[in-house]
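Subject: Interface between my chains keeps coming out wrong

I've been trying for a while to get a sensible model of this assembly. When I model each chain on its own everything looks fine, but I need the whole thing in one frame so I can look at the contacts. Pasting all components below, labels as-is. Any help appreciated, I'm running out of ideas.
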Amino acid sequence: MSPGPGPGADPAVQHAGPVHVTAELLATKRIGAHHHLTLVAPGVPERFRPGTFIAVSVGESHLARRALWIHRVRPVGGYGAAVEVVVEPRGVGGSWLTRLAPGARLEVTGPLGRPFALPKEPVSCLLVGEGYAAAPLFPLAERLRERDCPVTLLLAAEDEAHLLSALEARRSARAVTVVTGDGSVGRRGSVPAVIDDVLAQAGADVVYAAGPLPTLHAVAAAAEAHGAWSQTALEVPLTCATGLCHGCAVPVVGETGVARTARVCHEGPVLRGDRVRWAELLAGPATAPATGPVVTP
Amino acid sequence: MTVELAGLTLPSPVLVASGCGGTGRELAAYAPLADLGGFVTRSLTLNARLGGPQPRIVETPSGLVHAVGLPNPGLEPFLATELPWLVQHGARVVVSIAGSSLGEYAELARRLGSAPGVSAIEVNLSSPDASAAGVFDVREPFHAASVVSAVQRDLPRGVPVLAKLRSDPVRVVESARTVLEAGAAAVVVGNALPAAMPDGRAAGLSGPAIRPLALRCVADVCAALPGAQVVGVGGILGVDDARSFLAAGATAVQVGTALLHDPTAAARLAAALHHDSEETAS
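Reply #2:
Try treating it as a single job with all components included. I did that and got this:
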């Protein structure tokens, strides 16, 4: 019923149900404008697929959960595997999370949502990420490389401090384009300004994008114009993040062409770009901030 | 710890509140629905509703303000897909209904009454989204009684009606008495309080912020109507909260907002209350 995965969805990418656990903060490290939090959350790493996310509780007094992209899963001595998430110290939730000290315990649910669908064939892929939201694209690039898909990366941010893992990007992609709003790294500009050129150059069959809604809209439109499939990882404020409250519904076009809504946390966060009714979505006040974690202020 | 509610025998006094359990499938990922007293669906209308514009839910101190707009697939798709799945997974299904007219309530009751697997009907008489949603406006107790009568008339015997009332401390006893006289088997007290989104849209307020008021309303109804069966709802987060409502005279409780914060909340409360009852028995 949902705007389903793009071409050649991988049948192996099935929902292994999420878990709700008390996680331990193993490490917190500031890198540029972001904080990278390493969490030991039993059950989450082995279920992770690129594009899924975790929801964390901000203490007892804040009822809405905070959704965080999983940036990587890595082995940690003595703990098995841990998940790393990227947080910006903005809003009540982001500030609270970035102030936590190692050893802190927090309620975590995940991995949640539908992951990026992986192509069955080794097709050319362009990955577009802006700011901290580029986090899920790095593990995605690894999965695509395992499938012999040529990967091109377009990374964007307002400035160098908000650029995520640009050095690491060069290891995971055949070609990397960096654009910053102030021109401090790479080209000066924005995703909407360069996406057509980058897409033409990459000759991509599939475009994966993660970032603010206007960026995703620009990518989806460019992909359509170039005859490529697009998969967009939407970011809107989530309340429960588990599909229970129907608070995060966005306008989409169903398989039958009928206008309907899809819950970002449950049918998304990855939705096919050609299935989202962008104009309607962007007209509403639910547009996620250009930067900053998905938090309810 | 079984409870008798509205003629039904439930394995636990903890039910999932309407609008906070998704379709049931999402919640079942964390705990079996069969272990809970019941699963109250989001309010169903005859025809599908997309729901309201964003933002639909905002956080407020100790609560959530919501103007979701009763999104639901409509009755037929629910009967075809969601209801069989819930029944198959052992849920005791309480279908919440909302109509734009008495005729629509009656039609919903008629069609749900003949559907296998519906344990009870919960009549949503107090949706704070109602002003925006075109739902029959229940301002006076006699309006509520009219809805309950219309629903009751079209239901087969054995499918009880639960009437969900607003936590209005001034009129809740009168409303409860009226709907019980009209044929409701139990009352559910209390729904989200009328509130407003920051942009002024009509909304509901739920969560711990409304718990003391909901508890007062439950206590008043139980005291004034000793024979009445009351289901307490409103900001129940922990087991102590649930115990307070049961101690005030509620037969059962519903958990809503807590599930949005912790999807295992209902299962945890059910287990804790079961433990209570075992200790009492031993």
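Reply #3:
Confirming on my end. The interface with chain B takes residues 17-18, 20, 57, 61-65, 107, 109, 236-237, 239-240, 242-250, 259-261, 266, 284-286, 296 of chain A (CB under 8 Å).
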